[in-house]
Amino acid sequence: MDETRVINGSFGEIYLDGDFLSNFTHCEIKDELEFSELKTAGTRRTKHKLIGVNGSGAISGYKVTSKLQQTLAKNPTAQFQIISKLDDPEAYGAERIRVSKVKFTSIPFANWKTGEVIEEEWPFVYDGDPEFVDPIVQS
């Protein structure tokens, strides 16, 4: 492994409906796989059948505006598109992953403490399939 090719998260970017969220510093997008256990004849080993996929994640970062809170306060069922981008100049390339039909599952209206920088976390679910707009491939 060439250690210079390990991706540094400092080069990550988050886009919400095409808008760069420069104040956001963390992005997690994942599919949780749901399996049903199957008992079969002739073995003690339990088998597993994939029966569902649940897309979820979270974005978080520094509080700068109230724009997202206001949007969701007016329309809590609003749907969005999120693109996660990693573009470390030493990596084999840039990676962009897009998820659509994003719905935020909570709205952080206030959460602060005197003397501390305010950070917010926005958990979400999504119904669209994750799409590798730009995958990283070793050349």
Write a concise keyword list for the protein shown above.
eight-stranded antiparallel sheet, 6% helix, Pnp Oxidase, Chain A, mainly beta, 139 residues
Can you offer a commentary on this structure?
There is one protein chain. Strand 5 and strand 6 form a beta hairpin. The chain is mainly beta. It has one domain: Hcp1-like (Pnp Oxidase, Chain A). It is built from 1 helix and 8 strands, in the order ββββαββββ. Strands 1, 2, 3, 4, 5, 6, 7 and 8 form an 8-stranded antiparallel β-sheet that branches. 6% of the residues lie in helices and 48% in strands. The mean pLDDT is 94.
How many domain units?
Answer: 1
**Main sheet properties:** 8 strands, antiparallel
Task: Say which CATH homologous superfamily is assigned.
Answer: Hcp1-like
**Principal-axes shape call:** globular
- β-sheet strand percentage: over 45%
User: What is the helix fraction of residues, given as a range?
Assistant: under 10%
Looking at the structure, the CATH topology is Pnp Oxidase, Chain A
What's the alpha carbon Rg, rounded to whole Å?
19 Å
Count of DSSP strands: 8
Tell me the distance between the termini. Answer: 13 Å
Quaternary status of these chains? single chain
Give the name of the CATH architecture: Roll
CATH class: Mainly Beta
Strand and helix layout:
Elements: E1 12-16, E2 19-20, E3 24-38, E4 47-62, H1 67-74, E5 80-86, E6 95-104, E7 119-126, E8 131-134
Antiparallel strand pairs: 1-2, 1-5, 3-4, 4-7, 5-6, 6-7, 6-8
